[in-house]
Design goal:
Largest sheet: none
Helix content: over 70%
Oligomer: single chain
Number of strands: 0
Distance between the termini: 35 Å
């Protein structure tokens, strides 16, 4: 089984029923849903599944990319933008909601994935600069 399929299967087994319905096509995904789900998937370090989602929801991915570019331009002129707009708080809330709906054992496993992924991302960024 390909890594993306393994990551997809693992995520679908633990995500909320609402997200499961979105990802299996039972409900239509909005841009906000896409932002939240791809943030969670990225936070877990599921890069292959993230690439699959980007390809599957290309229209939402493009809209998300445009939004991120606009936010970055605002941030360059207004460094407090993310904090003032509550963007970081919203992302933390998404992670908390995801983790809180898991059993204790699964929560520990996924918390570790998030920690490992963020450590990797930080070291990767440091190496780039």
């Amino acid at each position: 089984m390909k890594k993306a399929e393994t990551q997809e299967q693992e995520f679908l087994e633990v995500c909320s029923s609402y997200d499961h319905d979105l990802l299996t096509g039972k409900k239509e995904m909005t841009l906000k849903d896409y932002e939240r789900i791809t943030y969670l998937v990225s936070s877990l370090g599921y890069s292959q599944y993230l690439q699959f989602l980007i390809g599957k929801y290309m229209d939402l991915a493009q809209a998300d990319e445009e939004r991120e570019e606009r936010e970055h331009e605002i941030y360059l002129e207004y460094p407090e933008y993310y904090e003032d707009e509550g963007i970081l708080e919203e992302e933390e809330k998404w992670l908390e909601e995801f983790l809180n709906q898991l059993t204790e054992k699964k929560r520990q496993y996924f918390e570790n994935l998030i920690i490992e992924s963020s450590s990797y991302q930080k070291s990767y960024c440091i190496q780039m600069f």
